[in-house]
Specification:
With 246 residues, the chain is an alpha/beta fold. It is built from ten helices and seven strands. The strands form two sheets. The protein has a five-stranded parallel beta sheet, with helices on both faces. The protein has a two-stranded antiparallel ribbon with strand order 6-7.
């Protein structure tokens, strides 16, 4: 199942929704930085816009926070709207008929409102996301020996990674094309026994790294998810020029 992206101006505001989605076993990526990149690319007709649109294909749904103004949504709609994913608006209260009509003109297919029950959220997402869960191309069962893409900006990638993202990528690099289990990554990242919270956070870290690979001009699919086993990086990628300090 592809993850869900929350675009926001304030990560703290989204914590409750993110926890609810994770409780329902959705992988969630919440980002302020990506929102700003999308806005900058749209205003300046940046060449990164195509890369950003390809990056958004990794998500089955995009949730637009209540911290984002309607005018900003209109500006970003050409980039965000796609028949391959749901576009949802997060609101404080259930919208009235006029507000529903206004959202439809924005291209938003539905909404999520704050303080809704977990049961309502489960059923709403099940209905709205069903058409977008058929294509699971982001999950692979076998590793193909493909040549890595080397045209990206390595320095940009290095600067964009957090400490835990650096540690995760370093583990993948050192494996030299081997499979790195989620449990092993958890032990390296938190120096503790794996638990559901850490396993979920590890999945989010991998998704964030792939997003940053895409933004830096690299092929995000150089990191493969091997079902039931873990993750692997295409052999030879970054081995000579990008090992980070753990």
């Amino acid at each position: 199942m592809k993850p869900i992206l929350i675009l926001t101006k304030n990560l703290v505001v989204e914590q409750e929704l993110q926890q609810q989605l994770q409780y329902l076993n959705y992988e969630v990526f919440c980002s302020v930085e990506l929102l700003e990149c999308l806005k900058a690319g749209k205003r300046q007709k940046d060449t990164r816009t195509d890369s950003l649109q390809r990056c958004l294909l990794n998500y089955q749904a995009i949730i637009l926070s209540e911290t984002i103004a309607d005018s900003e949504i209109r500006e970003l709609l050409p980039i965000l709207k796609s028949d391959k994913r749901a576009l949802l608006r997060k609101l404080y209260n259930k919208p009235n008929a006029n507000e529903e009509e206004q959202m439809k003109t924005l291209g938003v297919i539905d909404w999520l409102f704050i303080d809704q029950s977990i049961d309502y959220l489960r059923e709403q997402l099940s209905e709205k996301l069903a058409p977008y869960q058929k294509d699971e191309t982001s999950i692979v069962f076998m590793y193909k020996n493909e040549s890595p893409q080397e045209s990206g900006n390595l320095q940009q990638l290095k600067r964009s990674l957090t400490k835990r993202e650096q540690t995760t990528l370093d583990c993948l690099i050192r494996s030299k094309g081997g499979i790195v289990s989620r449990e092993y990554l958890c032990s390296r990242l938190w120096n503790d026994q794996p638990n559901n919270s850490h396993l979920s956070q590890t999945s989010v870290l991998i998704k964030r790294i792939k997003t940053k690979l895409e933004l830096a001009g690299f092929d995000p699919e150089m990191i493969k998810t091997v079902w039931g086993s873990g993750y692997m990086l295409k052999k030879g990628v970054f081995e000579k020029d990008f090992l980070v300090t753990v």
